[in-house]
């Protein structure tokens, strides 16, 4: 039985993030990953059963890393509206700090067949601080919708679209750009 070499596993993960960013999920193969990571072609199989297992496990790890400070960021707000803004700003900062990871999350979330339904159910548990915040906002009747999925889309889709557009056009996006989009999103989400 092979032992887990954490350094090689990290190289495999970095290779997956880079390849998904440059080529997308559909053409991702273990041979490409191994070549990019500088490891033997069998190395990815030491860590993952197959492509779906790999995509799911890396997704959960990346989401955990990005969401690590989300709950703390949310609690700094004095009102639910402020907490929603802080949650969105936290995510904006993470998107700028971890662009490959952010692109990876977007790629997995926009490819329904990339991972199993069981893995998707696990993913939904990762955003617990946001879901709790949405529930508080709904209970307080602060928002134009009471559907958590609609809330999430209204709050984050414009920011994701801006990030994608800037990336495609090889333009830099700043936190100020994202703050403007977040404020516009909140203006449309919060009841007047």
From TrEMBL:
The keyword Iron does not apply. Keywords: DNA-binding, Transcription, Transcription regulation. It comes from the Bacteria. One of its GO terms (molecular function) is transcription cis-regulatory region binding. Gene3D superfamilies: Tetracycline Repressor, domain 2. Residues 6-66 form the HTH tetR-type domain. The lineage of its organism: Bacteria, Bacillati, Bacillota, Bacilli, Lactobacillales. PROSITE patterns: HTH_TETR_2. Residues 29-48 bind DNA. InterPro entries: Homeodomain-like_sf, HTH-type_TetR-like_transc_reg, HTH_TetR. This is HTH tetR-type domain-containing protein. It holds the Pfam family TetR_N.
């Amino acid at each position: 039985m092979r032992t887990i070499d954490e350094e090689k596993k990290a190289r495999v993960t970095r290779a997956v993030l880079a390849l998904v960013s440059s080529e997308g999920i559909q053409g991702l193969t273990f041979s490409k990953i191994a070549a990019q990571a500088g490891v033997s072609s069998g190395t990815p199989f030491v860590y993952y059963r197959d492509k779906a297992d790999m995509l799911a496990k890396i997704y959960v790890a990346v989401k955990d890393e990005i969401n690590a400070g989300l709950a703390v960021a949310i609690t700094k707000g004095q009102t639910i509206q402020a907490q929603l803004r802080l949650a969105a700003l936290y995510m904006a900062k993470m998107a700028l700090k971890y662009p490959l990871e952010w692109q990876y999350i977007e790629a997995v979330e926009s490819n329904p067949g990339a991972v199993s339904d069981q893995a998707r159910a696990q993913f939904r548990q990762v955003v617990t601080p946001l879901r709790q915040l949405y529930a508080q906002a709904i209970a307080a009747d602060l928002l134009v919708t009471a559907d958590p999925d609609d809330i999430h889309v209204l709050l984050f889709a414009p920011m994701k679209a801006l990030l994608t557009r800037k990336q495609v056009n090889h333009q830099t996006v700043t936190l100020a750009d994202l703050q403007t989009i977040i404020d516009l999103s909140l203006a449309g989400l919060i009841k007047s």
